[in-house]
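re: ur msg from earlier - yeah i can do the magnesium ion complex, just paste it... oh wait u already did. ok heres what im feeding in:
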Amino acid sequence: MQISRIETFLAPPRWMFVRVETDAGVVGWGEPVVEGRAEPVRAAVDVLAEYLVGADPMRIEDHWQVMTKGGFYRGGPVLSSAVAGLDQALWDIKGKHYGVPVHQLLGGPVRDRVRAYAWVGGDDPAEVRDAVTAQLEAGFTAVKMNGCGRMTPVASPAEVRAVLRRAETARQVLGDAHDFGLDFHGRVSPANARRLLPQLAEYAPMFVEEPVLPDHAHVLPDLVNASSVPLALGERLYSRREFLAPLHAGVAVLQPDVSHAGGISELRRIAALAETYGAQLAPHCPLGPIALAACLQLAFTTPNFLIQEQSIGIHYNRGAELLDYVVDPEPFRFDRGALLRTERPGLGIDVDEAAVRAADRTGHAWRNPVWRHQDGSFAEW
Ligand SMILES: [Mg+2]
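and the outut:
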């Protein structure tokens, strides 16, 4: 079997899909994208395709090594995301070739249900109350929300109290049997994080995510020791090596993105690395159906898996939704806040190729907003 053709498709709201075709008629799908930087990833996929077309798709690990290391210059979100999407497609092909789901190729299932959380938006506590209530009524047992909007580097008491009120409201609605994650989104300075974390502890969030920017990773040991709140991060890290320092610091939950950090092959290794530190895996995935399917295959076979992010109904999705690109929504049907294991081959989904080709004719040019503080200076989004 040889890889015969590789195509990419820009799919609204902000995604990109890759289709890898073989001369045996088996087709694999992947999702190589960096949100807001889809076009450079597409160009990187085109360069990697020069190497892959004509190659044996079954040699996933060898291709991963060459794609990741063979260009001399390596790393970073663009290359790692291009490799990630192609890696997903190669696993999809291998599973379909053998007629088994990818999780069977990775050692078989360790669980039958994958707990997922839903996003809630809303800026004031009343909105948080309504949004959390709605997700509980939809059957979810966990939610996640942003801890704050833009925040001044040394926050006012009002800004600090607004974060605490959101957490307090979420805990009131959820009771003690359900969970919420609080995403600081890299918007919070190290000083603000040190002030907030001890005060958040009484509301027992499941985790605080990206408590500081990846640029400020050197303060992670202090932040781990600042409170009992588990810290989570990883959506802006791109290889197992980049997770080593956070693990050493005592970060509790790793959130690599299967479309940014080298795909299924590298996430599996990041999960094993986390297991040696007693840390859990909660893959980042505000993306489309192929990335979520790849996450699920990992979740079914990863012992130290905690919970799965997913984008259905997320505030970013304008004009298109995850279910628009699959023929059969069944693999993404929630059962009491969890997704169920199936024995469908490959990544376990049927991509709606006609819908994907139609979407690419429109494409998208999604960019994240640029925020500014009240004085006009740049603010982290
Ligand atoms: Mg996040």
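cool cool. Residues 3-100 form a domain with the Enolase-like; domain 1 fold (CATH 3.30.390.10). ping me if u need the other ligands too
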